[in-house]
Amino acid sequence: MNPLSTNKKIYAGLAVLLGLAIIGCIKDENAAACEPKAAVSDTAQMKKFIRDSAITADSNKANWLMWQVMDAGTGTTPGPNSQVTVKYMGRLLTGAGFDSSYTKSPEGAVFRLNKIIPGWYLGLAKIKEGGRIKLLLPSALAYGCDPRYGSLTNQPLFFDIELIKVEN
């Protein structure tokens, strides 16, 4: 093996990595600044939504997840790596709907539990297959400060979810 050839490959690899690092540091001047919100900052708005909607919610004061189990279900409980089939409707706290499996895939949407928003991951663990839960998520457990989600960025969200199927 020629040591010069090996060194050239190493230098070429380092040059590529350095180039990628520089590109990754370039700031997009058109990107809107986004500051993550602490979950507690959404609580007043969430509590008002619960009062106005006559929801009886349990809550976790550590992360401000709020939920109401409508039907506990009788099947399998989803685990961290489960694939779940769900029917759901998502709403802003103004009541405006922003997403629904009922219109996109009436038979249910399929997700890997460890690949979805944290609030769903935490909430779906509270029911079993066949169950139904209402989740009220602070923005930190929803889409957080991720500009890819546009108007859903830093918004607390409400979901009504039916857990159709669990595959472990």
From TrEMBL:
Keyword Isomerase listed: yes
Enzyme class per UniProt: isomerase
Known EC number: 5.2.1.8
Keyword terms: Isomerase, Rotamase
Entry's Gene Ontology molecular function annotations: peptidyl-prolyl cis-trans isomerase activity
Domain PPIase FKBP-type: 81-167
Family classification: Belongs to the FKBP-type PPIase family.
PANTHER family reported in the protein's UniProt record: 39 KDA FK506-BINDING NUCLEAR PROTEIN (PTHR43811:SF19), FKBP-TYPE PEPTIDYL-PROLYL CIS-TRANS ISOMERASE FKPA (PTHR43811)
Protein name per its UniProtKB record: Peptidyl-prolyl cis-trans isomerase
Organism: Niabella drilacis (strain DSM 25811 / CCM 8410 / CCUG 62505 / LMG 26954 / E90)
